[in-house]
Design brief:
By secondary structure, the chain is an alpha/beta fold. It is built from ten helices and 14 strands. Helices cover 35% and strands 23% of the residues. Strand 9, helix 5 and strand 10 form a beta-alpha-beta unit.
Length: 333
Amino acid sequence: MQFSQSLEYPTIWQCTNRNIQGDRAVIYTLTLNPALDRALWVKQVCLDTANRVVNEERYAAGKGIDVSKVLTSLGTPNTAMGFVGGFAGEELEGQLLNAGVSCSFVRISGETRTNIIVNEQDDHRQVIFNAKGPKVHPYELMRLIRRIENLKDMEFLAISGSLPAGVHPVVYRQVVALAKSKGAMVLLDADGEALKAGVEGLPDAIKPNEHELAGLVGKVLTSLDETLQAAMYVLERGIPWVLISLGSKGALLVKNDLRLLAVPPKVQAKNTVGAGDSFVAGFLHGFRQKKDPAWALKCAVAAGTATTLMPGTAICTQEAFLEILPKVEIKPV
């Protein structure tokens, strides 16, 4: 895999000429394939028979959508961007507006997808069915590109999630480069070909999990040392920072002169959907507060852990976040 070596734009970690304190720092999230999550609760999943649903909820979802929801919960202003369509798209946008999230979506002719999440109460397990999503036409894609081009206040951009049908992975590379050309600092959270294409635009940071990082470097990772080596491989190809989520083991933050491991407290997880997105939101929230990487990583792990305590999708309350935050341990590796 080849990466470009040039770094033509300021990175998120070189902000000495920017005022990113207080409410003047503007964060945008981009979700090209958002969804409604339909969460069902049953006592236990039984095959070849009817399963009685004891509770049902619907949530605005998609990785960048989750980032916006958690940022808003933590008190950090932001605007959600992406594609929405049909009645499901209307409901998704309405839910976000009711939650206090600012929206700037491009409407498309297709219907926003609906995912199904089945939660077993007895065994605390989840079965997740992710829908493919609608096709996005070229003219709809260009509407979004023009909207990004016309932004005057974008200082941070978090690009997250999968690509809808009709959108080539190279679009992520182009959006990264476009945002950086406008002076924005870009964090990319994607997988597979979308991640590989996106890193060609040299985002300021990427946030893979271990599996996604292994796919990016083309090597199975079986230890912490191998994960660190893979992160260094990415750094050498022009990505300033690599954030690696490790699930219940915490997270790594790697840059040329810094290696940090954040270890969360042990909790009884009720839900894992959206924890990685809450991690991204917590990181942006923390970095915006202090511009200190250790603090940002601590906030990231606290937000991700807080999300696992609640049923649903990316529900990180400020109360749970603040309770967990002092319990997160940061240590060099």
